[in-house]
Amino acid sequence: MQTYAAAQAPQGARPGAGAGGQQRAAMPQIGHVYGKLVEAKTRQAVEYASVALLRQKDSSVVGGMLSKPNGDFSLEQLPFGQFILRINFMGYKPVFKKVSVTPQTVSQDLGNIRLEANPEVLSEVEVTGQRTAFQMSIDKKVFNVDRNLTSVGGTAADVLKSVPSVNVDIDGNVKVRNSSPNIFVDGKPSTLTIDQIPADAIESVELITNPSAKYDAEGMSGIINIVLKKNKKAGFNGMVMAGVGTNDKYNAGGNINARQGKWNVSANYNFNANRNWGSGQTDRTNFGTQGSGNNYTTQNSDSRNGGQFQFGKLGVDYYIDNRNTISIGQNIVRGSFKNYEDLTSVFSDADKTFTGQSQRLSDNEFGFRNYTTTAGFKHLFTEPNKELTADFSMNKSSNERSGGFNTQAQDVNGSPIGDPRFQFNNSDGKTDFYTLQADYVDPVGTTGKFETGVKATLRNYSSIYDVFNRNNAGVDERIDSLSTDYKYNEQIYAAYVNYANVVGNFGYQLGLRAEQYVYAGEIPSESLKFNPTKARPGLFPSVYFSYKLPKEQELQLNYSRRVTRPNFFQLIPYRDITDPQNQREGNPDLKPEYTNSLEFSYMKTWKLHNVLASLYYRNTNNLITSLSTVIGKDSLLSTFVNASKSLSYGAEITVKNQIVKGWDITTNVNLYQQEVDVFNDKTGNFIRNSGFSWLAKINSETKLPANFTFQVTANYQAPTITLPPSSGGGRGGGFMMIPTSAQGMIKGMNTVDLALRKDFLKGKNLSATLSLSDVFNTRQYEMDQMDESFSQYYLRKRESRILKLNLSYRFGKFDTQLFKRRSNRGDQQGMQMDTGQGF
Asked: % helix / strand / coil in the chain, to the nearest 5?
């Protein structure tokens, strides 16, 4: 005997047609409703029962099928709306069940439906809504990338610049509320930088400012989860796109998805190539000691960067049945960059008399490869919202860097003095990153929920860095004092429990996470080993309280304890003297920093507006920051230390408004105060840095006639004290890192981005997007630093005013028989299943 996956529409009608075969345009066909039929007394599966979905308003048939031998039924490609599920089987009374398909309930498990002698009507009430550019809830904000026009053709860095609460500096370092978050890709840690992820491969960005115990404890200011595109529509569909930008910038790519029966296959590919320029200026005064006068150093740099990277993703889902799914995926990212820099350094004495200068020409190449393999299993129990998931991720990445530095001393006229000094270097790094995780969710009673899970994260890293000096005879000699090799192993073992419930208008969630962190590093060539942390567990509690007020209002108070552990570059005890005037060195004795985070929020929702306001407080012990001190006559050494005190508190408000139909504005303002105390063990002095600052973002989207959409994004960051950059961002192009420490003040910065999109064709399948970033060319980085030994002004500018044109074409076809031939017999029997009687 045969079963059939779906009823066939009448001849001449299209999927989603109502009475009379009229097509319902602009109605998304993405809903999925499924469940299992069982006999009420014996609980045995009921096969070949007639299952039909009817429109509630006119009882017209939307879809139907015969239940399978195991009792399963599955109705896919459903439009949004209110429906009645009708089940008929000979010898049993019909069963009716109300079903609501909305953007929030696209996929629904109706559980085990019992067939018995007496009729039973089951009711369900669902919340309806529309997918917007920015969705807010009390514990998470979701930024839908497909509505962000200014990032089309760019990278994840361009996407994050538009996300409320998030700040991205010109080196790709990410801050949330001026602190470093933990960045995930598809809910898992990744070695990819945000400049290695194309914007067109991203579905959404989730921002969780105060995560519960279910999430990793890493990250002072919470978690940013970058969700990559993965389509699950029936049939096949996809998109192709290409774009060009000023100054040799190109991008192209596409994605395709095919689903039929038990299989869903999706693929994505993106290519980005670009050239950029950069410039910088440093003016430093080194204060004299023991009666000696000051001396001055001025540096000017000009750089050119170019490269390309490719991003590919393949995913397969196999639906064993309605409640069991196996998923596997593979990501491949490869790229290479070249960087050329001309750096001139001028030195003067206390009278500002010229004493010498030098020119350093550097030419570097950087390449990387990243492979991520994932596998997952998901089991849905018959009880609603009860599920078990298991996931495995393996990430392997490598990078190579090579280049040379040609330094020439010069006189006041710029003429060479003596022979040039030529150095070149080769480096090679490899990372193996494994993640294993299992989670279990079990509803308790009618309103409670119990969650628990375990996770293991294993990372192995190795790096070899060799520096050579070419003498006058042309012989290359390895410089042992500048060369190094390094290895480290990092292991994190975690387990958590969460319990949530609701009593009237009061809700609560209590959670506890335990993480055991093990780290060991070594320099094999010097037989040196470092074990800065002991293998002992840390406890990270989280507490959430909420209270619902009348008229769509809600209050929430939550607390969590978090940790930020030092990364490889902060720990490695190697001194980088690529630029002799600005040297850097890691500290293997760094301790992890621990943050206690408290947040109070208020949310109010209207029909066309909503507001989320928060007060937050963070107290951090052992904050990892950096200190800069003068060494020698005119050089600066930056190293990492643990601060003795750090706290941050502020207020943030995010407002969404529909000014008129077709014009939406999202506004985000963050006001904050920061204080940090650092003990300088070299001088015995405390360094205190504190200050008030604020960040504002506005995103305006306007629907215009003739299928035009106009978007404006404006950002302003007020002057703020400096803290070390996040380890979660960063560019891969070989640029020098901005020297930040607890001793500085970053000047204010503002940018405005514009984008205009035009949709073509009847179904808006073809779109053209024209965007201009940093309209007024104001995006740059300026910083002032000062302590008892030096003062410094630093300016950094990258190419930021870029005009881009992107074209995209979307295609697709609903076809439930995509992977197999049609059966004439099956078509005929399928049409006889249920033509619909009025309800």
From this structure: 5, 65, 35
